[in-house]
Amino acid sequence: MGLSPVIVLLVLPSIFAFSCKDQNNKDVDWFAVYKMPIEKDNTVIDIAQGLAFYYLDVNDPSQLRPSAQPLNSTNQAIANTLNQFYAVKDDKTIFHVMFNDEPYGTVSMSSQMANRVDSRIYRPELAAVQFGHTKGTLFFDGQTGVWLVHSVPKFPPPDHYQYPDSGTDYGQTMLCMTFTYAQLKDIGTQLFYNHPDIYSSNLPTSMASANPDLANLIAGKFQSGANSHSSITLTTKGGQQFKSFAKTADFNDDLYQKLLAPSLRTPFIVESWRRGSEVPLTCGDPFPVNDALTIKVGESLEFKYTKDHSKLARSALKTSPYVCIGDINRMTSQYVRGGGTTCISNDKMWNAFNVITTQNQC
Ligand SMILES: *[C@@H]1O[C@H](CO)[C@@H](O)[C@H](O)[C@H]1NC(C)=O
């Protein structure tokens, strides 16, 4: 008896043409999101519930547009994108990894410190500090895949789309990029430096040898020692370059001042979670980094940085129009955490992300 053709088919890797999906569930090369903190201004649907967001993508990069659907809807770009994975999550020929320094399913300090208005403020610093301060989801078949960079605690669930209560109060940022499979190796290297806290993963055996850093990472290893940072240019399926910056715990300094700004040779303003010991401003530096104090997105009310959990870095000069979305804060506590950011140079998007209205400075 010959080998059944059915069995041969079963061992072939599946092809799903994974892509970031836009607000209408159409393939899109990349998109970015500014999720709003709770505001009572009715400018975007469910902004009072902390479920509102603004959206921008490669096809319309000159404006952050209010989303007609809130984050708890399954009919918007983030859910559309993740739902491709959830629909086939049990297919063992698909690679995926989900990581978060506040992993899905963990109990936060906030629920233990009942009725304190600021009960969540110090929560990120109390998270498992041996891991990087890094959040994201990747899923790939053997041809294409998606990298979603984000700042939302306990997101996303491993098996279904849901926007968590832990992500409603504050502002958040997200960046989705579509890549060909060949780029996964380099993304894996960046993750190997960042040392993420992984709460769901599958690396098919057939993909392991081509992606050694991912294989090692999923086996619990990570970069350490003198070689403490990695900068890689990634190219999306549609041909857009993104510069990815990653650091390890051994870097022992601020990602933005000591890696991002000098690498791109331009000053930056960073909006991140700042509580406790802040990174001192380095006034004499040729490429100084300041911190955002207030933010205003679209028609929505301006808000203070204390209402924002985003990890956004925007270059200060239009001659080098970078927008970076990542997962580590600019705070001294983050010196000894892995983490990174991913940057695009695009003057339209840079204009659209002109959201930082005041900043500290020397
Ligand atoms: C989303 O949340 C809002 C506010 O709590 C609620 O009114 C709405 O029904 C929810 N939508 C979905 C699709 O769950």
Automatic annotation (TrEMBL):
Q: MF terms per GO, please?
A: deoxyribonuclease II activity
Q: Tell me the first and last residues of the signal peptide.
A: 1-17
Q: Provide the GO biological process annotations.
A: apoptotic DNA fragmentation
UniProt-listed Pfam families = DNase_II
Name the InterPro entries for this protein: DNase_II
Q: Which UniProt keywords apply?
A: Hydrolase, Signal
Question: Belongs to which family?
Answer: Belongs to the DNase II family.
Name of the protein in question: Deoxyribonuclease II
Q: Which domain of life is it from?
A: Eukaryota
